[in-house]
Amino acid sequence: MRLSASAIALCAGLLLSQWAAADDLPQRWVSAGGSLSEWVSALGAQAKLVGVDTTSQHPASLKALPSIGYQRQLSAEGILSLRPQILVGTEEMGPPLVLSQLRNAGVKVELFSAQADLPTLQRNLQHLGQLLGREQLAEQLLQSYRQQLEQTQAWVVQAQAEQAAPGVLLLLGHAGGKPLIAGKDTAADWLLQRAGGRNLATHSGYKPFSVESLAGLSPQVLLFSDRSLSGAAARAALFKENPVLASTAAAKAGRVIELDPTLLVGGLGPRLPESLKRLSTAFYPQAKPVQ
Does residue 3 register a pLDDT over 70? Predict the structure, then answer.
């Protein structure tokens, strides 16, 4: 079948408009937020990143990019030196004056929500997909994400039929000192509950840990996240700086679990479903591992 000259012209016009739209999309990106940087990479656009903040640690290849500092303490001069067309970050990004300076300099500043829930993730991924011209891939990633969470949730329900949900205390600290207790309405609480744990903290947000705050609690599992140390060094610092924790049932039973702090920054990231599986297995060690 032959196409008429008008049909050929129409097809050519559509192709040209698609190419033009792709050219109009920002090509030089800076990201301030670990989860957002991970999603940009997951969407196959890591090559567009010319700078990231200090919370952007995954994939490891991001560490080779120029750093723009901590997401809450950005500098307009440092970011502008990278000649970005767009800066993406969450509402945690700032300070506001720097964001205004960047906008005035012609940089597109796109803010995303750091709220830890699936509706927010859906909106964030759709927005990122549009900015990258990869809406279909963003939708595919979201569907896969949902499926993984549903599988883990089904496993947790089965595990809880044989074992009660363990009481958990989640501590976020720096070199062991002055940790914060993760309460309700936090990414940490969302992660803990999805993994099948029962958060013993009843307050909202993050509250400084104290001997008094531990009174009346008997955590069966201690979940800790250190922003400067990892492994055995982080565990040792936690107990050295907070010796009262060593007397908990969790510590005596050896149920002290480390959590990567970058999982708690910037909303739900692409590594979270796999981390949930590992955490669920640790909460319910007698159950068959999550597939």
Answer: no
Q: Residue 61 has which token pair?
A: 């290849």
* CA–CA–CA angle 66, 68, 70 (5° rounding): 130
Q: Hey, do 26-140 and 165-259 end up sharing a CATH topology, with the first three levels equal?
A: yes
195 within 8 A of 283, measured Cβ to Cβ = yes
Spelled out in words, what is the top-level CATH class assigned to the domain 165-259? alpha beta
Q: Which amino acid would we find at residue 234?
A: A
**Residue-wise pLDDT tens digits, 197-214:** 999 999 999 999 988 888
User: What burial class does residue 131 get, using C-beta atoms within 10 Å of its C-beta: 0-12 exposed, 13-18 middle, 19+ buried?
Assistant: buried
Nearest-angstrom CA–CA distance, 83 and 76: 11
Q: Options 3.30.230.10, 3.30.420.40, 3.40.50.1980, 3.40.50.300; which CATH number does 26-140 get?
A: 3.40.50.1980
Whole-angstrom distance, CA of residue 221 vs CA of residue 253: 9
